[in-house]
Amino acid sequence: MSNVLNWQLGREMDYPYEAAYPDHQFAFVFNINRCIGCQSCTMACKSTWTFGKGQEYMWWNNVETKPYGGYPHHWDVKTLDLLERSHPGGQTWGGKTEDRKGPYGQFNGKTIFEAAQTHVGPEGANRALGYLPTDEEWSAPNRYEDHPVGSEKGVKGQYFKGGESLPTHKTWFFYLARICNHCSYPACLAACPRNAIYKRPEDGIVLIDQERCRGYRKCLEACPYKKSLYRGTTRTSEKCIGCYPRVEGRDSQGGGRPMQTRCMAACIGHIRLQGLVELNPDGTWKENRYNPLYYLIHVAKVALPLYPQFGTEPNGYYLPPRWVPRPYLQQMFGPGVDAAVEKYSAPDRELLAVMQLFGKDHRICFRYEIKEGPKVFETEVRGKKFEMYNDTILGYAKDGTKVIETTVEEPLHVRPDQHANSI
Ligand code: SF4
Ligand code: SF4
After folding, report:
1. Do residues 62 and 42 lie in contact, with contact meaning Cβ atoms separated by under 8 Å?
2. Quick one: DSSP state of residue 299?
3. Tens digits of per-residue pLDDT, 40-74?
4. 378 and 163 in contact (C-beta within 8 Å)?
């Protein structure tokens, strides 16, 4: 085992290989508050990459309803439970928040790599603590869709008034959209006995070499997010490839410029923003104040990693849903939840403008710029003053071309009468 810096945990951790970081890292931010569970992302991915024989049950992108749903069923609860059993009561956070090297404080518990060393199964010690889901668990990817959880039961025939008042709802669910996190310390890669999995030095996308893979499914067992999947017809494992031809700028629609993946581009809820971020030699993010992902994750700190305590340093970040009870969110996104929800609930001028970049163009935005506009609205949000300015936000592609120009106030289009009741 080597010692590597996991900045999301604010400390070094054990990992089976020496640290090696790409120049740029594929990363993305999903705003859960906006997801409507339409599954356009899921179908965009399926119709592009997994429509072949043997891939019928395979969903590289999936959207599940929390708290009960999951693909495979209960993937997160099972891994959390394994970790808790290997380190009872110790999976906690502490320490102080430090800029880029520990923005969420320090994780006191054990990661899946650390817990594996003391959790020796019949086959000996594994490189990561995990489990192999059953065939049944991979079936029905959207079970429990729209099933809420609630502490109080309503009265039949009466509108339940207490269920939906903020700051957190008593009756709640939310949609969690997921793809492979192209982790900085991938558990799938660590566990592969054939060295068939590699992380690309140019963009950090994690791929499985289909020539080398023998289908041992060690990656399925190790990945805590269960984003490596087995294909019976080829007897190999497959996973999300980060639409790398698009990211490389080889999709004809992008005019040679890096493009966002199919799932990001198809999202009609405009919840997704994908980027390529530059890394320092120690794996932390290079300061880049006007890169939208850098701003959301390191400056505004409204986007948080999914289950950072697993230890893979996932590159998928989420704006937590503001109506969900905080303990549930803290378990899922770590200690940054309260500050993130507060900031998002009454966003400042810059955050409100940056939020407009989501879903506006298929090409990857590397830099943004804001042109100030007039104040158009003001109110109070839970005791805090909120002001809205109709600023213009500009987004630029890798080569400096302007690809986005939009305003905070969305234009209103009124259809003429002759089109009434038509679509
Ligand atoms: S999410 Fe899973 S499959 Fe994807 S890189 Fe991380 S460990 Fe590997
Ligand atoms: S397309 Fe967007 S809004 Fe629809 S389910 Fe996927 S992530 Fe959510």
Report:
1. yes
2. I
3. 999 999 999 999 999 999 999 999 999 999 999 99
4. no
CB 297 within 8 A of CB 317: yes
Torsion of CA 281, 285, 291, 295, to 10 degrees: -160
pLDDT at 289: 97
Name the residue at shortest CA distance from atom 2 of ligand 1.
Answer: 223
Q: Is any ligand 2 atom within 6 A of the Cβ of residue 176?
A: no
Q: 389: which 2 tokens?
A: 């300015």
Query: Which stretches in the chain have pLDDT values below 70?
Result: 151, 422-423
Which string of DSSP letters, residue by residue, matches 174-225? EEEEE-----SS-HHHHH-TT--EEE-TTT--EEE-TTT-----HHHHH-TT
pLDDT, tens digit, for every residue of 156-193?
A: 888 777 777 778 888 899 999 999 999 999 999 999 99
Cα(183)–Cα(281) distance, integer angstroms: 17
Assign residue 378 a region (left: φ > 0; alpha: ψ between -120 and 50; beta: otherwise). Answer: beta
Which of 271, 272, 274, 358 to mutate for ligand 2's pocket (most ligand atoms within 8 Å of CB)? 271
Q: How far is CA 343 from CA 37, 167, 339, in A?
A: 24, 13, 6
Closest ligand 2 atom number to CA of residue 40: 1
User: Which residue's alpha carbon is at the smallest distance from atom 4 of ligand 2?
Assistant: 38
Q: How far apart are CA 220 and CA 131, in angstroms?
A: 8
Phi, psi of 106 (to 5 degrees): -125, 135
Helix%, strand%, coil% for the chain, nearest 5: 25, 25, 55
Distance, CA of 262 to CA of 43 (rounded, Å): 9
What whole-number distance in Å separates Cα of residue 257 and Cα of residue 363? 7
Q: pTM of the full predicted structure?
A: 0.95
The pair of three-digit structure tokens given for residue 373, joined into one six-digit string: 């506009």
Tell how strand 367-371 and strand 392-396 pair up.
Answer: antiparallel
**DSSP H or E run through 44:** helix 40-49
Instruction: Report how far apart, in Å, the C-alpha atoms of 330 and of each of 73, 100, 104 are.
Output: 21, 20, 11
Point out the ligand 1 atom lying closest to the alpha carbon of residue 239: 3
Is residue 8 within 8 Å of 308, Cβ to Cβ? yes
Q: Tokens 């019928």 sit at which residue? A: 56
